[in-house]
Design a protein that fits this description.
Helices cover 42% and strands 14% of the residues. The chain is of the alpha/beta class and 430 residues long. The protein folds into two domains: 189 residues, Rossmann fold, CATH 3.40.50; 187 residues, Phosphofructokinase domain (Rossmann fold, 3-Layer(aba) Sandwich), CATH 3.40.50. A seven-stranded mixed β-sheet has the order 3-2-1-4-5-10-11, sandwiched between helices. Helix 16 crosses helix 17. The termini are far apart.
C-alpha cells in the first residue's frame, strides 16, 4: 500500500546565515523523492500572520545548484506570530488552508519557539495535526546544542570574519595603529572568540569572561587600553582588539542610555530584543578609548570597525554545505518516521532530534541560550595567546615600571588605575 502523500512547507525566520539555501535544497529533494509536495513560504511567518499565501511550489529542477549560494531564496523575516492571538490564529488557519501537514522551519531560538507554539495551537484549537521539525541556524552559535556542535552558518561566518580581521592585522602592522573590531552576537561571544582566535587578534573580549554585574564599558575600554600600553612597552605600536557585540545586552541601564545620542532611540525587535545594530557600539568604544589614552598621555591612532552583515549572506563554506545537506535530510527523515516538535542535530555522525522541552529555559519558557564555556580548553588556549594585562604585570616590579613608563603615571598610580582589569583574570592554563 502506497504511503499517503503530504504537503511540506519550508520557511525561514530570523537573520540570514550561510547554508539556508542548502537546507531548502536538501528538504525539497528528499521530500520530493518520497512522493510529497513541497511549498516554499516567503518571508517567514510574516505573510501567514496576515492570512496571505505568498508561496512557491518547489521542485528539484527549481532548487538545483542553490546549495552553493548565500542568502535565502525564500527570504526571511523576524515576524513573531506568538505575540497576538489574532496573528497566531491567522498563521495556523493559513497553513491549514494550504494543506500543509509537515513544516520545516529554519531559524534560531525565536523561530523554534514560534514553530512550537504554532503547532500546539493548530492541534488544540483547529484540530489540525501539524508536524514540524526545526533546523537550527545562527552565526551566533548560541543555540543549546551539545558542546562542540556548531549551529550552521557559524563556521562560514568565522572563516570570513577571520579573513577580514587578518587584513586589519596587516593594516595595523603597516600603518602603526590599533583596530577595535566589534563582532556580531546578540548575547554571546562565540563568533567574536572564533574570529579573534582564528585571526590571532591581539585580544578578544567576550561577556562570558566577566562575572555577573561587572559588564561595564569602563572595564572593556580599560582592558583594551591596558593591552595597548603593554604592547607599547614591548616596542609594538599596533594591534587588533575584537569585542563581542553582546556586551550591549549586559551594560547597566544608565550606561546604555549614555550610548544613545539625542537623535537616537532605544529600539527593540518583535521578540523583545534590543536592536544592537541601531547603536553604534564601535564608535562609542573608539571615543571612550581615545579619551582614556589621552588621560594616560598616550598618542595613538585607533580605527573602529564592525563585522556582522558582511558575514550573513556569503556563500557557505564546504563544512556548512555538507552540514546543512545532512540537516535537511534529517528533518525529512524525522518527520517521515512520525516525529514532531524537535530540533534536528547531528551528533556522532547520527541524526539526533532534540525535543523542545529539553531545550527550554524553565524560567522564560523560551529556548536556552548557549554561552561560551570559559572553562573549556578552547577558551583557555585563546586566552593564553592574547596579549593583555595580567596579574604577573603587577607582581613584577620591573615589568610594572616598564609598562608605566609608557604613560604619564607612576607604577603605583598605574597599578591603582588598572588593577580592576585583572581582578577576575581567566588565564588559568599552566
Amino acid at each position: 500500500m502506497a504511503k499517503k502523500a503530504h504537503k511540506y512547507g519550508i520557511l525561514v525566520g530570523g537573520g540570514p546565515a550561510p547554508g539556508i539555501n542548502s537546507v531548502i535544497s536538501s528538504v525539497t529533494i528528499e521530500a520530493t523523492k518520497r512522493g510529497h509536495t513541497v511549498i516554499g513560504i516567503y518571508d517567514g511567518f510574516k505573510n501567514l500572520m496576515a492570512g496571505q499565501t505568498k508561496i512557491e511550489f518547489l521542485t528539484i529542477p527549481k532548487i538545483s545548484g542553490i546549495h552553493r549560494l548565500g542568502g535565502s531564496i525564500l527570504r526571511t523575516a523576524r515576524a513573531n506570530p506568538t505575540k497576538k492571538d489574532t496573528d497566531l490564529r491567522a498563521t495556523v488557519e493559513t497553513l491549514k488552508d494550504l494543506g500543509i501537514t509537515h513544516l520545516v522551519t529554519i531559524g534560531g531560538d525565536d523561530t523554534l519557539f514560534s514553530a512550537t507554539t504554532v503547532a500546539a495551537y493548530s492541534k488544540k484549537y483547529l484540530d489540525h495535526d501539524l508536524a514540524f521539525a526545526h533546523v537550527p541556524k545562527t552565526i551566533d552559535n548560541d543555540l543549546p546544542l551539545p558542546a562542540g556542535i556548531p549551529t550552521f552558518g557559524f563556521e562560514t561566518a568565522r572563516s570570513e570574519g577571520s579573513r577580514l580581521v587578518s587584513t586589519f592585522q596587516s593594516d595595523a602592522r603597516t600603518t602603526g595603529r590599533w583596530f577595535v573590531v566589534v563582532a556580531m552576537g546578540r548575547k554571546t561571544g562565540h563568533l567574536a572568540l572564533g574570529i579573534g582566535k582564528s585571526a590571532s587578534a591581539t585580544l578578544t573580549l567576550i561577556p562570558e569572561e566577566f562575572p555577573v554585574g561587572r559588564h561595564s564599558l569602563k572595564l572593556v575600554v580599560d582592558t583594551i587600553a591596558g593591552s595597548i600600553v603593554k604592547r607599547l612597552s614591548e616596542g609594538r605600536n599596533y594591534g587588533v582588539a575584537v569585542v563581542a557585540e553582546g556586551f550591549l545586552e549586559f551594560l547597566e541601564a544608565e550606561e546604555l542610555k549614555a550610548l544613545v545620542t539625542d537623535h537616537q532611540a532605544i529600539d527593540y525587535d518583535e521578540h523583545g530584543h534590543l536592536r544592537l545594530s541601531e547603536l553604534n557600539f564601535p564608535d562609542v568604544i573608539k571615543y571612550v578609548l581615545h579619551k582614556r589614552l589621552k588621560e594616560l598621555g598616550v598618542a595613538l591612532r585607533v580605527n573602529d570597525q564592525e563585522i556582522g552583515y558582511e558575514l550573513r549572506c556569503v556563500d557557505p563554506c564546504a563544512f556548512d554545505i555538507d552540514y546543512t545537506r545532512n540537516l535537511g535530510f534529517g528533518a525529512v527523515d524525522f518527520l517521515e518516521s512520525g516525529g514532531s516538535n524537535a530540533m534536528i542535530t547531528i551528533q556522532g555522525d547520527k541524526i539526533v532530534p532534540m525535543q523542545f522541552e529539553a531545550l527550554k529555559d524553565p524560567e522564560t519558557g523560551k529556548t536556552k541560550v548557549r554561552m561560551v564555556d570559559t572553562e573549556s580548553l578552547s577558551f583557555k588556549i585563546a586566552r593564553e595567546y592574547m596579549i593583555r594585562l595580567d596579574k604577573s604585570d603587577f607582581e613584577d616590579e620591573d615589568k610594572l615600571r616598564k609598562i608605566a613608563q609608557v604613560t604619564t603615571m607612576t607604577p603605583e598610580q598605574f597599578k591603582a588605575e588598572f588593577s580592576h582589569v585583572v581582578e577576575n583574570d581567566q588565564l588559568t592554563l599552566k
